[in-house]
Amino acid sequence: MKNGLVLFFGVFAALALSWAGVLLSASQQLGRLGQFKDPTDDTIYPQPLSGLANQGRLVYQDLGCVTCHTQQVRREGFGADLARKWGQRGSYARDYIRDETVHLGSSRVGPDLRNVGNLELHPGADADYFYKLLYAPTSVAPGSLMPAHAFLFDVHPVAGRQPSASALKLPSRFAPGPGLEVVPTARAQALVAYLTSLKDTYDYPIERSRNAPAAKPKEGGH
User: Fold this and answer.
1) Coil, helix or strand at residue 20
2) Which site among 3, 38, 202, 221 is 20 to 30 Å from 109 CA-CA?
């Protein structure tokens, strides 16, 4: 019995120390990462979120969007993320240092969103597109499994009031009815600001060199 307890606590201590070592080393390594200044124009990357986009990050978190969407682009050789146009390069740890909460996710019921705001990869995916996607997903993405987030919008009668400049221009079969308009709420505006901010377009030279594939040995070499 005594030997059994010693063995148990010995194994427990070994596992605990190993786990703590992994966590501490990772924390130390990532904690040292800072913003990178481009030597050509002194621009700092990653650039901080705007105040509205940062509010939208909280809306994204509150709605549980991370349940169906990831924000991590696997580099070439580790999946088809680049072929799907989910990014122009694989994600780096440095990409996430501006995020107070990192929404990596683990399930891809829907597409990865790490670069959903990159118009080079997704032409036409502007703010208007995202508003329509949130209100009536199939209005812009036929066959989409995404649930409608109509609760992020207000429906107003147009009669007797000035029409809203931000009202959605929806196809007739998705519109709420004659004499009514759909207007994004403050939460919808913040969420869309966050989604359009999601783009990792800068390729850090130091990260690119680290992730470069190893050179193949020449035939006949030693």
Assistant:
1) helix
2) 202
Task: State the DSSP code for 3.
Answer: H
Cα–Cα distance for residue pair 170/7, rounded to 1 Å: 68
Q: What is the phi/psi pair of residue 103, to 5°? A: -100, 65
Q: How far is CA 3 from the centre of its chain?
A: 51
pLDDT per residue as tens digits for the range 95-132: 998 888 899 999 999 999 999 999 999 999 999 999 99
Class of residue 117 by CB neighbours under 10 A (exposed 0-12, middle 13-18, buried 19+): buried
Tokens of 25: 């080393």
Q: At what angle do helices 186-197 and 127-135 cross, to 10 degrees?
A: 120
Q: Distances in Å between the alpha carbon of 95 and those of 35, 147, 201?
A: 9, 29, 10
pTM given for the model:
0.81
Residue with tokens 């080079």: 120
> Are residues 72 and 92 in contact, defined by beta-carbon separation less than 8 angstroms?
no
Amino acid at 8: F
**What CA–CA distance (Å, rounded) separates 117 from 125?**
7
Q: Does the domain formed by 36-208 have CATH 1.10.760.10?
A: yes
